[in-house]
Amino acid sequence: MEPSYAKYLLGKIRQDYSLIAKDFSRTRKEAWKELEFLFDKYLITGEKVLDLGCGNGRWFLLFQERGVDYVGVDNSEELIGIANIKYPQAKFQIAEALNLPFPNNFFDKVYSIAVLHQIPSEEFRLRFLNEAKRVLKPGGFLILTVWKVHQKREITLLFKYTILKLIGKSKLDFKDIFEPWGKETKRYYHCFSKKELVHLVKKVNLEIKTGGLVKNQKGNRQNIYLVAEKPM
Q: Which of 28, 66, 85, 95 has a 20 to 30 A CA-CA distance from 156?
């Protein structure tokens, strides 16, 4: 992807969430139960934890229940505003994931739930991961999930944008799509495989500890997850 187009997409994504913030929050009120094991297994009371791409703060209660020192960041002023109203006791702030306002080796854990697939271009995805690594303490964990394409609608979009790329009608990379959010906008996504995600995380010298595919009870929501450690 051309760097200028990737930069344009970063701005578009921020604008999209400003546009749909209220509707997005209405449909994303609660944490996904199928991911609670990632909180049960890895959080330790008293740790400093970053919720990277926290959106409307819907994961906050899971962190609060486990007694960690929580910070949530997102680049959407509107979503952070909603988070602050809903959870005034939490620490939320507006920040760019590619340039985090924290010192090196600051957090024990960094969680990033359903965010990386909305970062355009491999260059920016690597910057995202390097920033997460930078603010992690040695021996700290990055807990990461991305959307798994599996529904007919998504597969159809993937086929459409693959054809457009092949015939020179798309500036997107292969495996990128735009998915409509009603009539308001089309959101950018990169359709990861687990193999690609593992390869990307290894590129920034994080050690993969575990990973897999997790589904909700109905099977209509699927996410790839990885747990990776920053070397000592």
A: 28
